Amino acid sequence: MATNILGHLPELVKLLISLTKEFHWIDNNGQRGRPYTYKTKTIVNAFIVMVYFRLKSIRSLARFLISHSYWTKACGFGSKVPNYRTLSRRLSVLDKPILCFSARVIQILARYHLISFRIISTDSSLCEAFGKKTHKNHPEIKPTDKDAQWGWSQARDWVFGYKLHLTSTVLTAGKTLVPIFWKITSANYHDASLFIPLMEKVLLLAEKSARKIRCSLGDKAYDINKNYYFCHDRKLRLITPVRRFKHRTEIYLKERCKKFVDSPKGKAVYQRRADNERLFSQLKDLFLIDPLPVKGFQKVQSYLSIVCLAYLLGVLYNHLNGRSLRAIKSLAT
User: Fold this and answer.
1) Coil vs helix vs strand at 184
2) Longest Cα–Cα distance in the chain
3) In DSSP terms, which residues pair with 295 in a beta bridge?
4) Which of 62, 121, 278, 324 has the smallest C-beta neighbourhood within 10 Å, fewest atoms?
């Protein structure tokens, strides 16, 4: 990737130019009879513009590209610009290529020693769905997003929408905070059911990056036996508050975790779990994900993946250009 700042161009344009020219996307057309009219990287560029400029719908993005030729060229489009239907259709199938590309960016961040896999943290956050909500007392009201569900959290009570399950790094000396892997579900999924699928992907990514995971932090929602056994079998420690019951002896892994969390060292390590919550707060503050600007599970899945990718690319770009790693908001100015 280019390491020089390109003159007077806005930072987001420089990031897009770096993405378009230096990273090579593979357009996997599958069983399609003909190749895509627009390359995957240019479509992703367009949605990164949508994310950074907080455009409120895909239609807004389509109109933005038509009326702003400067940004159209920055994304990599020629004289022909995709319309709303094309952008909507392509967004539905972007999740897998974005996850693959995000993994490559994370490996580069690890190579530059900007992140550490030693301690990771897993949590989830509710994202409100686009449009009208369903209500049991008013069955005549049809929800705008039929894939969304009601979910509850202690911080927000009931929310109609989706849940972003995310594993991130934590802030340690000389290391920054980034999302490593994520999964999107409807809001009614319990956190514990996604812990092992997330950890499997994170462990694979750590192995490819030649790094080892020592501790996995989580809140009490992840305090179930199979999660302890999964981590123990892979030589890492799950650190989470253990539910306490009178006259009940837990498995030895839970008892060991309980003693560690109660120790001064354990308390200091567990405090880093708040970094994951800080990342969610930053994503929601910087980008438009609560409420979401798109509807339908596939589009929401791809959009939230683009948000995470945009954050990762911003961190990498800032490092390569001598900027503060967490100065993401200024990229669009």
Assistant:
1) strand
2) 73
3) none
4) 324
